[in-house]
Amino acid sequence: MTYQVGYDEPKPTKRKGRRAALIIVSVIAVLVVGALVAAMMYLNSLSSAYEENAQVFEESFPEEEGRPVKAEDDESINILLLGSDANGGSGESENLPDVPQGGRSDTMMFVHIPEDRDSVQIMSIPRDLWVEVPGQGQHKINAALSLGGLPLTISTIESLFDARIDHVAAVDMLGFTGLVDALGGVTVNSSYEESFTTGEGFTFQPGEQTMNSEEALSFVRHRKSFPDGDLQRVKNQQAFIRAVIDETLTPGNLSNPGRVQDMVETFSPHLIVDDTLDSSTVASLGWNMRGAANSVDMFTVPTDGNGYSADGQWIFYQDEAAMAEISSAIDDSTLDDYAASR
């Protein structure tokens, strides 16, 4: 399947705000859905819900020649996550990509799961990062989707970090909203020291408060009230991720077959995955990662400033020293240490 993505200069629009929510969705896809399927494998109808509803990429990985090769004893897992604007996105493009329900992909995340499965590192990749796209010259990293679909995107990211991608998944926004609704809302602990009101008219206080899906979306999108803008928004996203994970994995939820089945059946139709990421793989991964819920490290690939390309595109320049550090950390399973230093 192929993708078309835009090249517009970033602007503080609703579309950019939606990308914040997409990051949340992608994280939940791995940490929550996997754990839910694993915890309830005895429900045949539930394990089949993922298998029946999650869509599969028709074409995922590039040709094997030239791809990074893992050591035989390396049992770490790297997953590429894509966030789709489908069912809630801008809808501005007439040539939307074939991600869940048809939408555009604006978010790329590299998820590293170490061999011990006791933690997970989630690395956001700026869509405007200026990189070498194999066989195509220099472009923004998201251009690989339109230039060669998912295989070229994987080749680009594998070349960037000299690390093999084992799985790929994409998810759209209705999966997020449906999951929050299925949970009956989530209680989020806002770290911001003052109250703030979003453009949608929701007011949030410091400390814990229960949010429905509309309030949660507004919470993770908002940035205008904060002196440090995106930095506080990232904190809000992290607080929300923790809230969803904590709420989903409560004994009350996991012991309620109806609630769990509702969550999986609500979320799984909004997933699209590679053909090796079947229900048994997701279940095994989710179960083995059940102890990682309190060890989720999130960071963004460092950049070396911004500017304009020769053809006038607004871009982020690579921090080549940081790229080398990240590559080494992935290779020797110390990405958790690198993330802690950010």
Structure characterization notes:
This is LCP family protein required for cell wall assembly. Belongs to the LytR/CpsA/Psr (LCP) family. Keywords: Membrane, Transmembrane, Transmembrane helix. The chain crosses the membrane at residues 20-43. The protein has helices at 14-39, 44-53, 143-161, 173-183, 213-221, 230-248, 251-254, 257-267, 279-288, 320-331, 335-340, and strands spanning 55-56, 77-84, 105-113, 120-125, 130-133, 137-140, 167-172, 186-190, 196-197, 203-204, 207-211, 271-273, 296-300, 303-308, 314-318. With 342 residues, it is of the alpha+beta class. The protein has 2 domains: 14-175 and 264-340, Nucleotidyltransferase, domain 5, CATH 3.30.420; 179-244, 3-Layer(aba) Sandwich (Aminopeptidase), CATH 3.40.630.190. A hairpin with a 5-residue loop joins strand 14 and strand 15. The radius of gyration is 19 Å and the shape is globular. The model is unreliable at 1-26, 39-46 and 85-105 (pLDDT under 50).
